Design the sequence.
C-alpha cells in the first residue's frame, strides 16, 4: 500500500508521516494542559494568576518528573518498572540515616542515592534483558525488596534538620529566583518567583533525555525495540543491550528522583513516595507514552506530570478538600485521556487502511 | 542386541517421565510447597520448638465454640481471598494478556457496599430477616463489582487499552469511591452473625472462608468443564484476530473474564469485611493485587496471555500464604517480610523462566542425542562383528 501512495502522491505520504503517533499524542497532551491551566486562571483566579503557583507545582513534583522520565524510557522499550516508588523511599531513608546517624556529608549521600538507583536498575535490567524474565514480575520483586529494606533500615521517620547536617539544610533551602516574574503581596511588597534547586536538576534531565531520545542512535534504537522486537533484531540492533540500558537509565532516574524527593522532604520514612510508581506511570500515559512500547516522548511526560499536578491543585482550590475527590478526579481524567488517545489512534489507523 | 535396545528405551522413558514432570506446570508451585514444608520440618527439628509448625488442635475459642487452630488452618483460611482472586486473575491474564491491578481497590468498593446495606440493620433482628439482608447485600455487592469489572473490561476490549493502564484508573480512584459510598464513616457492625462469613459459624470447627472458596473453586471447575470458556479465553489470548476469524467474539470473551474477576472480587470483599466487621478504606486488601499477580506467575502461567492452568494459580496462592506464615513463624517483622518475599520471588522466576528451562532442555536433548549416537555406533559395531 505504501508503495502505491508513494507513486500516487508522495506529498500526501510525507505530510502524514510528519505527524507520527508520538507527536499527535504529545500535541493532545499539551493542548489539554494549556486549556486546563488557562481555564483555571480564568475561572478560579486567585492563586492561579500568580506565577509562583506554577513554580510551586514544579517544586513539588520535581522528583515525580524525574521518576516519570525514567519510566517513559522503559515504557518506550516495551517494559515497565514498578519499583521506582519504593526505590525513592529507600534512597530517602538511606540518605537520611547516612546524614543523621553517621554524620556523613552531602556529597557521599548523593553517591549513595545514585548507587542505589544504579544497583536496582542494573540487576533488574540484567534479569529482564538477558534472562528474559517478565519485567512486571522482576520489578515487583524489586518493589518488595526495596520496601522491606527500607523498613529494615529504620521503621521510624528520620528528619534531617539544620542541627544534624547544616550543609544539607542549606542545599535543600537553596532557591533560584526567576527574573521578571513575581507577584505583589497584600502589603505591596514585590516577591520574586523562585524554584528549588531540584527543579533545575529535573529540567536538565528532561532536556538531556529529550536530546538523547531524539538525536542519538541509541535513543532511536529504544523506539525500534519497543515498536517491534524482532524486526529491530533483524535490523542488527542489539535488543538485549538496549533493554538493559533502558533499565539502567530508569534506575539512575529513580536514584536521582529519590534524592530530589529527599531534598524536598528533608526526611526519610517508609511511608515516603507511596504509590509514586503509579503516578509516574499515569504521567507517562497522559504524556502519550503507550505501555505497549514504541511510542512516547519526554516532553509529553513533562506535560503529563504538570497536568496531573494541576488537576490536583484545581480540585483543592475548588474547595473539595476531602481527600477522595482528588483521587476520583485524577481517575476520571486518566479515563478521559485514555479514551481520547484510543479513539484518535483507532481513527487514524482505520483511515490508513 | 535386543536387550541393548530395551535398556536404552527404558532409560529413555524414565528420563522422559522426569522431564515431563519438570515441564509440567504444576511442578513449580508443588516444588515450592514441598520446599517450604521441608524447611518447616527442619526448623521444627533444629530449633527445638515446643509446638510443631504443623500441629492442629481443637480448642475452645473466645466465644466458647470448639474450633480448629494451628498454622495450617491459618494458611488455608487466610489464603482464601488470594485463591479466589487467582482464579479471576488467571482468566483475565489468559484472555486479555495483561493484569488487573485494581482488584484491591475494587475489594474496598465491594466491602463498602456490603457495609452500607448491613449498617442500618438493628442487632436484634430475627435470623430469617437477617439472612435476607445478608443475601441482598451480597447480591448488590456482586452486581457493583461486576459493573466495575465490566468497566475495566470495556476499556480493554472495546477501546483496546492495555489492561494494566485501563485498571490504573480504578486503582487510583477505587479506594476514594469506597470511602464516598459510606461518606468516609468508620463503620463497624456489632451483630455477631455478620462475622460468621469471615470467621467461624458456631458448631463448625473449620473457618467459613475455606468453604466459600471451595464452593467457588467447584463452580469455576464445573464452568471450565462444561463450557468452552477455557478454549475461548486461551485462543483469544494467543491470537485475538484469528480467533475472531474463527467465529469467536474476542471483545465478548475479554469482557466476560473481567466480569468473572469482578464477581471473584465481590466474594473477596464480602469475606474481608466480615472478618473484621469493619472497614478501613486505605488499608483493606492493600497490595493484594501484587500477590494475586504473583500467584498467577508462580503457577507458571504466561503473563502475556494464552494458555493457563487454574490449578497451578490456586496452588500458587496457597504457596504465597504458606511463605508468609513461615516468615511470621521465623519471627520476621511484618514490615520486613516483603524483602524476604522478594528473594523468594526472584528464585521462583529463575526456576520457572523459559530461558533457564530452554537452556536445561537444550543441554538435556544434546546429551540425549549424543547418547543415542553412541549407542547406535556401538550397535553398528556389534552388528559388524556378527556379520564377520
Sequence:
Amino acid at each position: 500500500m505504501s508503495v502505491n501512495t508513494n507513486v500516487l502522491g508522495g506529498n500526501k505520504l510525507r505530510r502524514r508521516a510528519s505527524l507520527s503517533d508520538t507527536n499527535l499524542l504529545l500535541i493532545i497532551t499539551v493542548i489539554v494542559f494549556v486549556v486546563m491551566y488557562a481555564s483555571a486562571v480564568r475561572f478560579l483566579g486567585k492563586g492561579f494568576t500568580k506565577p509562583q503557583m506554577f513554580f510551586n507545582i514544579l517544586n513539588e513534583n520535581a522528583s515525580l518528573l524525574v521518576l516519570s522520565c525514567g519510566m517513559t524510557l522503559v515504557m518506550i522499550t516495551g517494559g515497565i518498572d514498578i519499583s521506582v516508588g519504593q526505590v525513592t523511599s529507600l534512597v530517602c531513608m538511606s540518605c537520611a540515616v547516612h546524614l543523621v546517624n553517621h554524620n556523613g556529608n552531602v556529597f557521599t549521600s548523593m553517591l549513595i542515592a545514585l548507587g542505589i538507583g544504579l544497583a536496582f536498575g542494573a540487576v533488574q535490567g540484567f534479569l529482564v534483558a538477558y534472562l528474559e524474565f517478565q519485567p512486571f514480575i522482576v520489578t515487583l520483586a524489586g518493589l518488595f525488596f526495596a520496601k522491606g529494606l527500607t523498613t529494615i533500615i529504620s521503621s521510624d521517620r528520620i528528619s534531617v534538620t539544620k542541627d544534624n547536617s547544616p550543609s544539607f539544610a542549606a542545599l535543600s533551602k537553596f532557591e533560584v529566583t526567576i527574573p521578571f516574574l513575581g507577584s505583589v503581596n497584600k502589603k505591596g511588597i514585590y516577591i520574586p518567583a523562585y524554584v528549588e534547586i531540584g527543579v533545575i536538576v529535573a529540567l536538565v534531565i528532561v532536556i538531556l533525555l529529550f536530546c538523547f531520545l531524539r538525536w542519538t542512535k541509541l535513543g532511536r534504537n529504544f523506539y525500534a525495540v519497543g515498536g517491534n522486537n524482532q524486526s529491530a533484531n533483524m535490523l542488527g540492533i542489539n535488543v538485549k543491550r538496549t533493554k538493559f540500558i533502558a533499565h539502567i537509565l530508569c534506575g539512575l532516574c529513580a536514584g536521582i528522583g529519590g534524592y530530589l524527593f529527599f531534598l524536598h522532604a528533608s526526611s526519610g520514612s517508609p511511608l515516603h513516595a507511596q504509590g509514586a510508581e503509579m503516578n509516574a506511570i499515569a504521567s507517562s500515559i497522559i504524556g502519550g507514552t503507550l505501555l505497549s512500547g514504541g511510542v512516547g516522548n519526554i516532553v509529553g511526560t513533562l506535560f503529563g506530570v504538570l497536568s496531573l499536578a494541576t488537576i490536583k491543585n484545581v480540585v483543592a482550590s475548588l474547595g473539595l478538600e476531602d481527600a477522595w475527590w482528588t483521587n476520583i478526579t485524577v481517575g476520571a481524567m486518566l479515563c478521559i485521556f485514555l479514551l481520547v488517545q484510543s479513539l484518535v489512534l483507532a481513527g487514524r489507523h482505520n483511515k490508513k487502511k | 542386541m535386543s536387550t541393548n535396545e530395551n535398556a536404552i528405551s527404558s532409560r529413555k522413558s524414565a528420563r522422559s517421565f522426569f522431564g515431563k514432570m519438570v515441564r509440567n506446570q504444576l511442578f513449580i508451585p508443588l516444588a515450592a510447597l514441598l520446599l517450604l514444608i521441608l524447611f518447616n520440618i527442619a526448623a521444627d527439628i533444629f530449633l527445638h520448638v515446643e509446638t510443631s509448625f504443623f500441629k492442629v488442635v481443637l480448642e475452645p475459642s473466645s466465644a466458647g465454640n470448639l474450633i480448629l487452630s494451628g498454622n495450617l488452618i491459618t494458611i488455608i483460611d487466610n489464603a482464601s481471598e488470594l485463591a479466589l482472586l487467582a482464579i479471576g486473575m488467571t482468566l483475565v491474564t489468559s484472555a486479555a494478556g495483561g493484569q488487573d491491578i485494581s482488584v484491591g481497590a475494587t475489594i474496598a468498593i465491594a466491602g463498602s457496599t456490603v457495609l452500607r446495606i448491613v449498617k442500618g440493620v438493628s442487632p436484634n433482628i430475627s435470623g430469617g430477616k437477617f439472612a435476607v439482608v445478608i443475601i441482598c447485600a451480597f447480591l448488590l455487592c456482586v452486581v457493583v463489582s461486576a459493573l466495575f469489572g465490566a468497566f475495566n473490561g470495556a476499556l480493554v476490549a472495546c477501546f483496546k487499552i492495555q489492561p494494566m493502564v485501563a485498571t490504573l484508573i480504578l486503582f487510583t480512584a477505587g479506594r476514594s469511591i469506597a470511602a464516598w459510598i459510606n461518606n468516609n464513616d468508620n463503620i463497624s457492625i456489632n451483630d455477631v452473625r455478620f462475622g460468621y462469613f469471615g470467621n467461624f459459624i458456631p458448631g463448625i470447627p473449620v473457618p467459613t472462608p475455606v468453604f466459600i472458596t471451595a464452593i467457588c473453586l467447584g463452580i469455576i471447575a464445573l464452568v471450565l468443564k462444561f463450557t468452552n470458556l477455557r478454549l475461548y479465553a486461551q485462543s483469544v489470548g494467543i491470537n485475538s484476530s484469528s480467533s475472531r476469524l474463527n467465529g469467536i467474539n474476542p471483545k465478548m470473551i475479554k469482557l466476560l473474564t473481567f466480569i468473572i474477576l469482578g464477581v471473584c472480587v465481590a466474594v473477596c470483599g464480602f469475606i474481608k469485611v466480615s472478618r473484621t466487621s469493619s472497614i478501613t478504606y486505605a488499608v483493606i486488601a492493600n497490595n493484594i493485587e501484587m500477590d494475586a499477580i504473583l500467584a498467577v506467575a508462580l503457577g507458571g502461567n504466561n503473563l502475556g496471555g494464552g494458555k493457563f492452568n487454574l490449578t497451578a494459580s490456586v496452588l500458587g496462592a496457597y504457596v504465597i500464604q504458606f511463605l508468609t506464615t513461615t516468615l511470621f513463624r521465623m519471627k520476621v517483622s511484618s514490615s520486613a517480610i516483603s524483602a524476604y518475599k522478594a528473594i523468594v520471588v526472584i528464585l521462583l522466576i529463575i526456576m520457572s523462566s523459559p530461558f533457564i528451562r530452554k537452556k536445561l532442555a537444550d543441554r538435556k536433548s544434546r546429551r540425549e542425542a549424543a547418547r543415542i549416537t553412541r549407542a547406535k555406533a556401538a550397535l553398528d559395531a556389534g552388528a559388524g562383528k556378527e556379520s564377520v
Summary: The first strand of chain B starts at residue 56 and ends at 60. The mean pLDDT of chain B is 83.
